[in-house]
Amino acid sequence: MNAKLSLRGVRKRFGDLEVCKGIDLDVAEGEMVCLIGSSGSGKSTLLRCMNLLEPIDDGEIWLDGVDIAEPGLDPQPIRQRIGIVFQSYNLFPHMSAVENVMLAPRRTKGLSRADLMPRISQLFEKFGLADRMQHFPDQLSGGQQQRVAIIRALAMEPEMMLFDEITSALDPELVGEVLDVLRELRQQGMTMVLATHEMGFARELADKVCFLDAGMILEQAPAEQLFSAPKEERTKAFLARVL
Amino acid sequence: MSDTAQQTGLAGASPAKPTRREIYEASVRRRSNRIALFSTLSVIVAIVLLIPLAPGWEAVQRSFFNGRVFAATFPGLAEAFLLNVMIFAWSAPLIALTGLAIALCRDARAPALFPLRMFGVAYTDIFRGLPVVLVIYIVGFGIPGLGLPRPWNSPYIWGTLALVLVYSAYVAEVIRSGIDSIHQSQRSAAASLGLSDGDTMRFVVLPQAIRNVVPANMNLFIALQKDVALLSFIGPVEIFRQAGVYKSLYANFTPYVGAALIFLALTVPATRYADYLMNKQNKQRS
């Protein structure tokens, strides 16, 4: 298997609290992996470790055969290759949607607005936001803001994407429009890791589902198998609660 | 979509018959207006009737509220006030820039910049800890005392420097609190896109931080407008000094009252505007 991203024995602690207790995970090129588990099980932290927003305490993270967890490595170029979208959108409130999207490519790749415009307006169009490019975040609905956040990450042309419970802050009626974007990305063959509470969505689209419990991957299996025939008691109990 | 719904809702409500609640609220409002009007009038009447009864009122009226002296000195005071405005006008941008630089110094994280950081800390500690007038004396008399040639011995230069030193320390602290007020998730978002620390500060954190602290800085600049008068101690004949000259000339304190009115004409609208900005910001946040 040609793993795009491999985690080996990843540990992360915040003070006395060990949030990741030795995580092993492989994400193949073009694969979609879903992380499920109750709040506080370590899903978000694990994602933030993957693109070096949180330095890990121990273990290895291999991206295309290079250990990016090497202490002292400049995280900037790595983060440019791995996009992440957050639960709370985190758009820059003082910039219009299109400026939000253009800032990073302009500054890190030295591209001008004119260089970027054709590709970026295409992205806005594809995700149904062509008429919202000049709007500011507070003029957009939650679902629209989240789609802008996804476009912002995609504008860096990342090799893979991380999604941290990106529909959890949305009204139920807005969840669909954001999940549609993920479906679209899936179709294009984007490598993705999602922390999610959308079990139906995970079951429908994920190649692999990992159940996290207390900082460990308790069980990982192809989606259908994990949902229909979970092996671990705790997985069963969790699925019984959420399904 | 919600906008149009709201508008039609409002448009639909106004021509209809007032509800029970609206009638009640209107009566409460009328009653509190009546009470407010009555109590205000009683206070004014009390002041107008009682103060002239004080034994020294005649003398105070003669020496502080003398119409003839007021008319004679007011134009001169207004002209002197232009000097205050000028000193303010060139000090304010210098203060804003120095304050920003000091705030960034205090925020410097790279180990090579540690001296800068220490400098920022020392600077804000020292200049916030000293009375303005003391700094004006020390800088304004001390530095020209080195025997500098003209124009480098001008009290305008060194007085301005004193104001910049003190006020930029306050502005720096206000800007720093603005920087701290930007949520960590904004920095995370910038970092996750691969932006450098410098770009994150310049494009993401600072624009938001500065916008947040505009009202607080407005208050500082209103205070600065008043403290410009302290430069009179080292020479410049601005409005306060000019009022002193007139006081001696006419043996009457009315010029000070005139000067006070001129200050208020500028600072009251500025204060109201700062409050308006502050309220607007609070509303946006809630």
Write the layout of secondary structure elements.
The complex is a heterodimer of chains A (243) and B (286).
Chain A: E1 3-14, E2 17-28, E3 32-36, H1 43-50, E4 58-63, E5 66-67, H2 75-81, E6 82-85, H3 97-109, H4 113-126, H5 142-154, E7 160-164, H6 172-188, E8 191-195, H7 199-205, E9 208-213, E10 216-222, H8 223-228, H9 233-242
Helix pairs in contact in A: 3-4, 3-5, 5-6
Chain B: H1 2-13, H2 20-50, H3 57-64, H4 67-107, H5 114-128, H6 132-142, H7 155-181, H8 184-192, H9 197-227, H10 239-250, H11 254-285
Helix pairs in contact in B: 4-5, 4-7, 4-10, 4-11, 5-7, 6-7, 7-9, 8-9, 9-11, 10-11
What features would you describe in this structure?
- The complex is a heterodimer of chains A (243) and B (286).
- By secondary structure, chain A is an alpha/beta fold.
- Chain A contains 9 helices and 10 strands.
- In chain A, the strands form 2 sheets. In chain A, strands 6-7-8-3-9-10 form a 6-stranded mixed beta sheet, sandwiched between helices. Chain A has a 4-stranded antiparallel beta sheet with strand order 2-1-4-5, covered by helices on one side.
- In chain A, a hairpin with a 2-residue loop joins strand 9 (208-213) and strand 10 (216-222).
- In chain A, helix 3 packs across helix 4 and helix 5 (142-154) runs parallel beside helix 6 (172-188).
- The longest helix of chain A has 17 residues, at 172-188.
- Chain A is globular, with a radius of gyration of 18 Å.
- The mean pLDDT of chain A is 93.
- Chain B has 2 domains: 3-53; 67-285, MetI-like (MetI-like fold).
- Chain B is 80% helix and 0% strand.
- Chain B starts with a helix and ends with a helix.
- Chain B contains 11 helices and no strands.
- Chain B has 286 residues and is mostly helical.
